[in-house]
DNA sequence: CAGTTGTCTTGTATGGCATTCAAGAGCAAA
DNA sequence: TTTGCTCTTGAATGCCATACAAGACAACTG
């Protein structure tokens, strides 16, 4: 009982912490957000954060998982849509986390925690895309390649500013080339 | 004369500086390489570097231009090769600067100097690719879109580890889809 | 109730970082 | 010899992520 109460408090506190961290990471960037800044925003001492997370990178992973699970909630909305719409949806979903996408890539070499998260994330996404493509009659091997390409296109569009028309043209072309009528 | 002599010395010193910085950036990463470390390697005081470059980002830009001009030397080798081979060549050229590609993207938001370099770089590359595609009979608008896609694919391949087969498959598919027989 | 234990918070410190500033060294021009 | 320019430095500033040991407080135990 009491143990349970504590666990609830822990979750609540973590949630508060992660939502503040998420807000700052998204607005100021990962490098632009110091642990002290997050702590100040929460009204606690900077080192308090280290009781909850072993490092800033681990806090980032927590934030990433948070964003992810939020996105997964919206996932059922588009499972039945065509490929192009699915990609457009992914872009809209990740657009607010744009900053974090490049941050993750930049920290891959330096942080094992981030690397693990990144690899797992890609495995998940690619599996999902491959599944979709195979349902559309694409052969396994080709589907694997196309999933990678689709991922690169989404990442590229997230990393570089572009117009609606550009996005539209790229997604349309990819969908057409991937699934010839 | 004397002025000239001095200018020569300046260039020599800058070259020494940038080649050391390049070596360290490429082996330890941008974040993993401190200004002090570069200075130590050169046997000078850390703040000496600031007489030559206003900031670490400006030093990075100098290094990037260095790598670029080195690559441009090899460019004539492949101007007459087909699209797929050109992309494979670009991948080989930039592979050693892999680290720096993500670094540039990560620092885009924080550094105006980097942003300028990045934008200029993309304009240059896309213009070159568009030119090639148009020579193959692709219409302007379509060529523009394909150039962006090609860039995203190269960046994606640089950022993510992959097998020779994967690379081969992606490049082949892209070339086929871009230039239907 | 008193005492122990575990959870959470903090003060304080460390070593690193990019960068700044004012003072100097060395050499060229006047 | 003096002036001025280019280059180098010592010393400092204000950040940063993080470590450690001591404390506050509540929950559990006897």
Largest interface: A-B, 32 and 32 residues
Mean pLDDT across the residues of chain A is 94
* Quaternary organization: homodimer
Helix percent band of chain A = over 70%
Number of strands of chain A: 0
Q: How far do the termini of chain A sit from each other?
A: 60 Å
How many helices of chain A in DSSP terms? 9
Shape of chain A: elongated
**What sequence of helices (H) and strands (E) makes up the elements of chain A?**
HHHHHHHHH
Report Rg of chain A. Answer: 19 Å
Sheet/helix structural class of chain A = mainly alpha
Low-confidence stretches of chain A: none
The proportion of residues in beta strands of chain A is under 5%
Sheet with the most strands of chain A? Answer: none
Short structural summary:
The first copy, chain A, is built from 9 helices and no strands. Chain A is mainly alpha-helical and 181 residues long.
